[in-house]
What does this fold into?
Amino acid sequence: MVVIRETPGANKQDEALEPMGKLRARLADGKEVELELATFKFLGDMQIRFVFDGPVSMLNAIPQDLARLHLSPEQALRLAVDNLKRVYGAPVATPWTGGLMQVQGKSSDLDSSYFLDREFWRARLREHPEGILVAVPKRGGLVFVPLSDGQAVDTLRRGVTYLYSSSEYLRVSSALYLFKDDHWAVFQPPHKP
It folds into this structure.
């Protein structure tokens, strides 16, 4: 599987996967360790993290797991999205508030991961070729509007900061993203931490 998490202070402009590298962590006993996870800088202030879905929790994958499975990060991403849809269902868009559409699957904690489902966004783009404006403020909050709906765009531009800041430890991104021409771009940059 794959999850999206925040990288505070980042504003990456392209969607190419870039390894996060090694990080230092402090264990409960106070000991510091260095570790490397299968985590990649993605876009804006978002990173993607590959995980194994367990019965009660998700375990972080490491780069050696991708190597063992003979998967490039891009191949792993496609497989992880396919697994997400197989286990938790295809994403469904439903009207929300202020002209916004909400995207959901069968596990709200993974709704943000549907941002990575290009098939879903391509279908929206066929309906609205001018582009789709998307916010991923929290794990259970993936919302979008057609770029042509000026009133809904204004609602989303004004509301994304509140949705993000009110999400505490479930935060994902304070930016807005545009999907157009089969490509993601930062539309409104993340706010400065």
About this structure: The chain has one domain: 2-188. The mean pLDDT is 94.
